[in-house]
């Protein structure tokens, strides 16, 4: 029998995944089955079937997305920027190995090219095969899978993309560079003159230092910066933030219209997600 990683433990005949993300907080999930457990050159990749959240992608012991609520994050990081851009044709997704964001971007008929730059091919392979509630077994011909380092990839792009989505994991390990100022500068350069970008910027409850740093760096590069939130039950604290930077003025939220088939995002969500809690406004001086 394959030896279990340290974050999978057996108790009274049950398997439990325990996230040790914070010193004083542990999150545990009861697991029905370990579907995939493999090491890539970058990280330990697992697909687990859990009792409450269904199948989930777990990287180095941290839950990334689940069948139960993965659609919330993927829809919010995709439909908000694509709804704000007047005519998105070329989209770059950095990260996003679960294919959920690319699946949502593919709902836009105007989009002609979707480049998905994911450093870990194993993540894409296992999600397409074993996590289809999230990936939809993505096979849209407009999607180009590029198994490269996203940090290096954007250094080579210049005014090429209408929208760039940075779908990164937490700022540790390989993903740490995706939160640096130089990376955001290269994102800016890779966008067309009317382009915009969005990234996940962590929990306002537990990671405000990362959120504040991300907002400050993007605000220092882009003439227009907006932050919005959604509640994703899997993620620590529930409340999750996204930071958007645009090279051009954006329509007012009440002007946005939405007609895509989704599970979470609708016109009201689009118009209201930019309304931030008071503690966030105060600490960000908004």
Protein described:
The chain is an alpha/beta fold and 286 residues long. It has 2 domains: 8-66, Spermidine Synthase, Chain: A, domain 2, CATH 2.30.140; 70-284, Vaccinia Virus protein VP39 (Rossmann fold), CATH 3.40.50.150. The protein is 27% helix and 33% strand. The protein is built from 9 helices and 13 strands. The chain has helices spanning 70-84, 100-105, 121-130, 132-135, 150-156, 181-190, 208-219, 267-272, 278-284, and strands at 8-11, 14-22, 25-39, 44-50, 54-59, 62-66, 90-95, 113-117, 143-146, 161-167, 191-200, 224-231, 239-246. The strands form 2 sheets. Strands 9-8-7-10-11-13-12 form a 7-stranded mixed β-sheet, sandwiched between helices. Strand 7, helix 2 and strand 8 (113-117) form a beta-alpha-beta unit. Helix 5 packs across helix 6 (181-190). The longest helix has 15 residues, at 70-84. The chain is globular, with a radius of gyration of 18 Å. It starts with 7 loop residues before the first strand and ends with a helix. The relative contact order is 0.13. The mean pLDDT is 93.
Major sheet size, sense and barrel closure: 7 strands, mixed
CATH superfamily of the largest domain: Vaccinia Virus protein VP39
Order of helices and strands: EEEEEEHEHEHHEHEHEHEEHH
The CATH topology of the largest domain is given as: Rossmann fold
Structural classification = alpha/beta
Low-pLDDT regions: none
Architecture per CATH nomenclature, i.e. the level-2 architecture of the largest domain: 3-Layer(aba) Sandwich
Taking all Cα atoms into account, the compactness measure Rg is: 18 Å
- Give the number of helices: 9
Q: What's the level 1 CATH class of the largest domain?
A: Alpha Beta
- Please give the alpha-carbon distance between the first and last residues: 55 Å
Into which percent range does the helicity of residues fall?
A: 25-40%
| Envelope shape | globular
Number of domains: 2
Mean pLDDT: 93
Number of strands: 13
Estimated share of beta-strand residues: 25-35%
Strand order of the largest sheet: 9-8-7-10-11-13-12
